[in-house]
Amino acid sequence: MKKESYARFAVPEYWIVDPAHLTIEQYLLVHSGEPYELANVFGAEDTVRSERIPCVSFLVKEGLKIVMRK
């Protein structure tokens, strides 16, 4: 349901974080009005980067440490 709401408001990108598997899925809205496309699946040792959010860059396992503390 969130995914459809994001697309309706043209949110350009969203991520699904899976702390149990230490992964982050990156979805992009390539064409307005169409479904999001899976762009990347980042594993624990990968660095997350986004062309649409250029100030973001972090190692998945380090970013998930912050999420799991909360």
From TrEMBL:
It holds the Pfam family Uma2. SUPFAM superfamilies: Restriction endonuclease-like. It comes from the Bacteria. Residues 2-52 form the Putative restriction endonuclease domain. InterPro entries: Nuclease_put_TT1808 (IPR012296), Restrct_endonuc-II-like (IPR011335), Uma2 (IPR008538). Signal peptide: none annotated. This is Putative restriction endonuclease domain-containing protein. It comes from Effusibacillus lacus.
